[in-house]
Amino acid sequence: MHATTGRGMDATVNGEPRPPLLSRLGEWLNPLVVKEVRQGVRSRVFWSFFGLMLLACFTIALAAWSSTLEEGGLKPMGRSFFFAFFVCLGVVHFFVIPYSAYRSLAREREDDTWVLLILTGLGPRRILRGKVGSFLVQGGLYASAVGPFLLFSYYLNGIELPTILVVLALGGCWLVFLTVWAVCAATMAEGRIGRALVHFSLLGSLALALMYGLVSAFALCEEGFLLFRRERFLVYFAGCFLWMMLTGGWLLFETAAARLSLVTENYSRGPRLALVVQVGLSGLVLLGGWLYVAPDRGAEVVSVLGCLYLTLCGLVLATDADGQARALRAGTRPWSLLRPGAVRGLRLAVLLLLAWSALCGVLLWLSPSGSSWREVTLEAVLAPPVFALLYMTLPVWVVRLPRAGRSASAAVVRFFFFILVLLASMLPPFVAILFGESGGQKLFNLLNPFVGLSAFLEGSYRWTAPELSWSLWAVVALLAGLSVFLADRTLVARERQAHAS
């Protein structure tokens, strides 16, 4: 039974002084957040960028004040100065903080201090949540310093308060996604060369992300909500991009946690479950939006984009480690697709591709016919899944033979995938020219992932002969089915071999 007396600092619980509020919050929070925040705010990097950002904002504020004196306060200048203040915040939020989060986790792995963090018993997910949360707290400190300047730009006229809130909200979502992305990138490479490649790739990606964030903020500042009212397509694009940021951030976080987990743990459950939920919810959202808008075309575009995304995800799933740890084999069922193993990852990727193709078929059936210049055919919607299955599984069974050794690593399979796509797009036009035909001849480019797929999407085969389109689609589908079967049997044989050894 608790006995509480007094007020404030004099309050007692069971006769002992109650700890201060900040101490209780520190115990409730992830301990790694408290440690990283304390370490971060004491670093030179934090105070250097914090001081430079405040100095830049103060200089811009002085320029704004002098401009109002010259113009007599009649000219609206809030839009320009808000974007100038946002640039100062965006450089820190979209580049410095994600890169610092990457270096923090990469340094833990390079200095072999990651093992000490694991021994604390927090686990990979809590450690990553602590890393991400600490840098988001630092981002909040930066934003709180720039906040008065952003509010000051509102009183300069020329920009609406809802526009300011929307820009800041979208910028916050972009910050969270980039931070999670950077933390995930720190778990990708193991060797020194791989880490160097990831490092330079991340620098280039963050530079592009910074440019994209500032350009988007500038467009919103200049046009405000009128841009969305005038261009309805931008509303759908912004909604889809925001949805992909939220669900993609969850998937990247689970992927990073899986890469840092032990092989004896069920490390694949988190990322695979996140991918299934993402695809399922995306399908439901897309179906609901399709019923509301009722567009006359676009099912083929949805099919291409979804299959491209699932092909890249499926390539990662199908290149998982062969077999399972002994602790995970008990009670394993063939349909437990969330468990570790390359064969289960391949089957999950195939099922997701088939489900997405079925969804696109439903969207095509719901679309009104006869209102566009070219009616989209069913084979055009079903062509992207068969091309995706063919090029996703072909590298798996070609490279990962049952007796293959180091040449069957995940990096080799993924590298061979890009080489295969490159050769399949370049060799058919060359062969067509050797036979005296045009390089864009459709039959020679039937298996071309670019020309052949575009021929199905444009209905070129149907224009030649309606029955030819389905016949050629059946040929590609037969090859894709054979490739899926060979890849599945190859991975099953490798899993049995891994269990037997």
From TrEMBL:
Protein name: ABC transporter permease
Keywords per UniProt: Membrane, Transmembrane, Transmembrane helix
TM region positions: 45-65, 77-99, 135-156, 162-184, 196-221, 233-253, 273-293, 299-319, 348-368, 380-399, 411-435, 470-487
Highest taxon of source: Bacteria
